[in-house]
Write a structure and sequence with these properties.
The chain is α/β, with parallel strands linked by helices. The protein is built from 9 helices and 9 strands. It has a single domain, classed as 3-Layer(aba) Sandwich (Rossmann fold).
């Protein structure tokens, strides 16, 4: 048992997950570090054996999830912060995308997150406290060419998270949706598959966008170390936000989306309200 907050983080082999695990351990927080291949994360536990628990976890396998949650409870007695970070990307126009690859992405980005959360919620309900941190994306608010299906997974994460925040608030359970723009993680590199580009009509839209994303890999403006510090700051705030945008591009994109929505809402307000049956 421990008086310090216990963090459970998925997808710790690279990117946000790895940096977040490193930082929580530096703060002395008990941390469950997980990945499909534990050899990639064992170094994080060196020197932190008292607080680190390294576990094999594939979020698409319910047996892995159940075993990991059981092991975490047995070791630390509680789970205070669940970070659903495991995820992959996929680039390609809607028409050209390989639906089997798309389904694989949904299994990880959406159903993996859902099943992981459902496994931890009983622990948090028993505690009457906890926070679920879901790593979404600015792509969960703003859709762009070449990432329609990736956007769809993150739009799903947004909806699930917002609904959960309203379902579980009275139980002392909070939700934080993290919405990064471009960061120097491996998301645009090996963590994303890509559809073949065979239709010339998409050359100037999805193809161009996919090339831009690939070419930016490793050179994005976002700093993962600064990002994880911001996440911890939000988790530990007395009044944490529901949504935490990370990066200047994320803030600009979100603001532009608000303007676009407002423009359509105002222009079509009469038609919108006219769809209701008249009062008798």
């Amino acid at each position: 048992m421990t008086s310090k907050p216990v963090w459970f983080i998925t997808g710790c082999s690279t990117g946000f997950g790895r940096e977040l695990a490193r930082h929580t351990l530096e703060l002395g927080y008990p941390t469950i570090i997980t990945a499909r291949n534990t050899a990639q994360i064992e170094d994080l536990a060196k020197g932190n054996e008292e607080n680190a628990l390294v576990l094999k976890l594939d979020v698409t396998k319910t047996e892995d999830i159940a075993a990991a949650v059981k092991a975490a409870e047995a070791r630390f007695g509680r789970i205070d912060v669940l970070v659903n970070n495991a995820g992959i990307g996929y680039f390609g126009s809607l028409e050209e995308s390989d639906i089997d690859e798309v389904r694989k992405m949904f299994e990880i980005n959406v159903w993996g997150l859902v099943n992981m959360t459902r496994a931890v919620l009983p622990v948090m309900r028993k505690q009457r406290s906890g926070m679920v941190v879901n790593i979404s994306s600015i792509g969960g608010l703003v859709a762009n060419p070449a990432v329609s299906f990736y956007n769809a997974t993150k739009f799903s994460v947004e909806a699930i998270s917002e609904s959960l925040s309203k379902e579980a608030a009275h139980l002392g359970i909070k939700v934080l949706i993290v919405e990064p723009s471009g960061f120097r993680t491996d998301w645009a590199g090996r963590s994303a598959n890509e559809a073949p580009r065979t239709i010339e009509d998409y050359r100037e839209t999805s193809d161009q966008r996919a090339e831009q994303i690939r070419n930016s890999s490793g050179n994005q403006p976002g700093d993962p170390v600064r990002a994880v510090k911001a996440i911890i700051q939000a988790v530990e705030a007395k009044k944490p936000p529901l949504r935490l945008l990370l990066g200047k591009a994320a803030l600009a994109g979100a603001r532009n989306k608000i303007v676009e929505l407002q423009r359509d809402f105002v222009a079509w307000a009469d038609v919108t309200e006219g769809a209701d049956a008249p009062k008798e």
